[in-house]
Amino acid sequence: MFAERLADAIGADAVKTAPEDLAVYAFDAYSESAVPRAVALPASARDVAAIVRIARECGEPIVARGAGTGLCGGAIPARGGVVVSFARMNRMLELDVRNRRARVQPGLINLDLSKNVATAGLFYAPDPSSQKACTIGGNIGTNAGGPHCLTYGTTVNHVLGLEVVDERGEVYTTSLGDSGYDLTGALVGSEGTLGIVTSAWVRLLRVPEATRVWVATFADVEAASEAVSAIVGHGIVPTALEMMDGLMIRTVEAAFHSGFPTDAEALLLIENAGYEDDMDACEHAIEKICKETGALTWRAAKSQAERDGLWAARKGAFGAAGRIAPNTYLQDVVVPRTKLPQMLRLVDDAAAKHELTIGNVFHAGDGNLHPLIMYDKRDKRQVASVVEVGDEILSAAVDLGGTISGEHGIGYEKRDTLARVYDDADLDTMLRLRDVFDASRHFNPDKIFPRGASCVEVRA
Description:
Blueprint: H1 2-10, E1 15-16, H2 19-24, E2 38-40, H3 45-57, E3 62-65, E4 82-85, E5 92-96, E6 101-104, H4 110-117, E7 122-123, H5 136-142, H6 149-152, E8 159-165, E9 171-175, H7 183-187, E10 196-203, E11 205-206, E12 210-218, H8 221-233, E13 240-245, H9 246-256, E14 266-274, H10 276-292, E15 297-300, H11 304-315, H12 317-320, E16 327-330, E17 333-334, H13 340-354, E18 357-362, E19 368-369, E20 371-375, H14 380-399, H15 424-437, H16 456-459
Parallel strand pairs: 2-4, 3-4
Antiparallel strand pairs: 1-2, 5-6, 6-10, 7-11, 8-9, 8-10, 12-14, 12-15, 13-14, 13-18, 16-20, 17-19, 18-20
């Protein structure tokens, strides 16, 4: 009955119920999976509103899905229900060059947005490593970042307004220009638990006049970390400041042949963008700092092709890890920049203790680490060790004054660790907010909050 009602509302070709179709939507980039009862592929906000109304009347949970690149199980249909896939809502609807903004559908691929506006001399700043595949809607759900968020900020800094379907199946809009509470900011990063975004006004930036990319190598991650702190400490905030450890340098170089020195044990990939007149002074200042903190080599990219090649290697690092092990598990934690050496030592200790291989490639400029745990899921011992190591990494980050997620969200994976960061009163306040938007908890249940969590009013 449920699937039939959906088909009547949005068309039979837009509803999938065959087992082989449902299996495709049972997982995202997270390792666990759950099969939905149905998958709906809306073509408009009206379709989404109809889906929400029918699902609510039938008591079925609703999970919004972009490209399935999420790493924390945010798009897993934990309680079945309907997965709302935005594969057919993937267009740029409006472009306002004068005001540097665009209205886009949630299924638009992140990189495609920048390609679409390039002829106007504009680009969209948030750029996760999955930029070629991830969608704007998914980015909004997790408040995604990327290498360039050091200067430009995360997704929340680039969303100007939203069109949203609420729990009753009604459509409303938000705008940063609205008086009162910032509903736009509340919805960004809410992982589909407060409503379903059907379009967004996003901020666009002018393509910089000049861009320089440099590579500095070091004998160890301690020296590279010292360089990171020194660069920022001197008041220099590059557009991007990325780090790789020795294992990932060699792995990436084997895959992409970008000219990374394979005898180095740490590497900084540094980018700065701005006015051409400022570039030489910036390069000299950063090069001086890196050499003073122990840089072994310094290299400046000489062409756009070379710059593109260096970034392709950086963003392809996680895929390159397939050369080492058949499976990978990526963590996402944040620590203060000054604690990077200590955190990396703790990661190495955990790897040695559990006899696992862990590579590090991450956003060093803002202390956002991505330890990449490599293993074989056919080995139950390794799987159990991966879970333990992941938990130890989360605990270590919190103990060092950091947090459990930088840009991947909480999703299903980290919901029970949220209590390590927030006390009961904090969680209760967040749950009260959620209940204002979705008291019935039909939107993406079993995500973000610990198992069994409910606000004081509900418990009473």
